[in-house]
Write a structure and sequence with these properties.
This protein is an all-alpha fold and about 400 residues long. The chain has two domains: about 10-185, Growth Hormone, Chain: A (Up-down Bundle), CATH 1.20.1250.20; about 205-394, MFS general substrate transporter like domains (Growth Hormone, Chain: A). The chain is built from 16 helices and no strands. The two termini are about 25 Å apart.
């Protein structure tokens, strides 16, 4: 095979996969699957007679599976999307049929592995396929992930009082299989797009670039999970009104994150990824600081909405900047998976600080410091790092 032919094959592998409609449906399911365990955990603890510590093991199993799924993305990304759908179907389907801590944890590990493959493969293929407005395309597809995350709590509230978990979970697992088969076997409607041969042949990132983006996603995973994980508790302790049992703040934050992804998609067509990234981080720091001072539900709700809107551009803008460096699928998957490590570490640190200081308000300093660290990294990379790295890579 000639070098030109080999490069053309790699170009197809880099962008081939389901059409954007199938990718969006898959990401909607991935968003549901990512946060699914939270709303149903109280029912599981009751039905399976588990302690809170044992429930935490179920969460950890899904996280570990998702991490390994992200770092094992195949070069042919269409196999990553389809395989992820199959693993998610198998894991969540078995979880619906099997009760008990250890078997349930194994099933969630498999389902989480599938989610890691779906999320990493989809982001990479979209980033490579749409090279003109990469950040906008990534914001659009991640809007559907956020929509699934928002919908999960509403779906659980509507279904759990009327049905046992088994039936809805089996239906959920079946949807993964349907979308996977549909996306894999039906003709592509929008791709793959033609790429320049040199852009379609990732050769590996310089180590400084790899570490920079891994650190960004590591810190951001911790920041977002600190806010989504502790905001309900914070609302119950420090707000004068407790609507929906304190859930109103987290609903507003997730809703704003979802709406913000749609707004970011439009903004990234007229603004550079790095500029929007820094603006969002600066505003996020301001609104987290504002949350530290408020005691009133109306202000807290407003700050949650503004915080969600300001956090929304970070991931699509950052991943678009990464894609411009043409990482291999394994490198991009690793960087995405590292965000899960931050999501596991920093909320625990926040709880540790709260316990030992006696105040969750003091512990809110953790996400504030994460935001400031991200802003510093972004500013440093924009001023000196990216120019130097670009010269090295050439």
């Amino acid at each position: 095979m000639s070098e030109a032919s080999a490069a053309q094959v790699q170009s197809i592998d880099a962008t081939a996969g389901p059409s954007i409609a199938w990718l969006a449906m898959g990401f909607l399911l991935a968003g549901l699957g990512t946060v699914m365990l939270g709303p149903i955990l109280p029912s599981l603890l009751h039905d399976w007679q588990l302690t809170d510590q044992q429930g935490g093991l179920l969460l950890a199993a899904k996280f570990v599976g998702s991490f390994l799924g992200g770092v094992s993305v195949p070069r042919r990304l269409r196999f990553g999307v389809f395989g992820g759908m199959c693993f998610a179907c198998l894991g969540f389907g078995a979880f619906a049929l099997i009760g008990g801590l250890h078997s349930g944890a194994l099933c969630l590990f498999v389902g989480g592995f599938g989610l890691g493959q779906i999320i990493a493969s989809t982001n990479i293929v979209v980033g490579r396929r749409y090279q003109k407005h990469t950040g906008s395309a990534l914001a659009s597809v991640n809007f559907f992930w956020s929509l699934g995350a928002v919908a999960c709590g509403l779906v659980a509230a509507a279904i759990l009082p009327r049905f046992h978990l088994r039936g809805p979970l089996l239906c959920f697992a079946g949807l993964f299989l349907i979308v996977g088969i549909g996306g894999y076997f039906m003709p592509l409607l929008d791709g793959p797009k033609p790429l320049h041969l040199e852009a379609a042949t990732p050769s590996g990132l310089p180590h400084p670039i790899l570490l920079h983006f891994a650190l960004l996603l590591f810190l951001y995973g911790g920041l977002e999970t600190c806010m989504t994980g502790w905001l309900t508790t914070y609302t119950l302790r420090f707000s004068d009104v407790r609507l929906l049992g304190g859930q109103s703040a987290i609903v507003l934050l997730w809703s704003a994150l979802t709406a913000g992804r749609a707004i970011s998609s439009a903004s990234l067509r007229v603004m550079s990824e790095s500029t929007l990234q820094r603006i969002g981080l600066l505003l996020s720091a301001v609104f987290i600081a504002a949350l530290l001072t408020t005691h009133h539900a109306a202000l807290l709700s407003l700050y949650c909405v503004l915080l969600g809107l300001s956090l929304a551009p970070f991931f699509p803008a950052t991943f678009a900047l990464l894609i411009h460096w043409h990482p291999t699928a394994r490198e991009a998957g690793f960087i995405l998976a590292v965000s899960g490590l931050g999501a596991a570490l920093f909320p625990w640190i926040m709880g540790y600080v709260s316990t030992h200081s006696g105040s969750l308000r003091i512990a809110m300093v953790v996400p504030l410091l994460l935001t400031l660290a991200l802003l510093a990294l972004s500013s440093a990379a924009n001023s000196i790092g990216f120019t130097q790295f670009h010269t090295i890579s050439k």
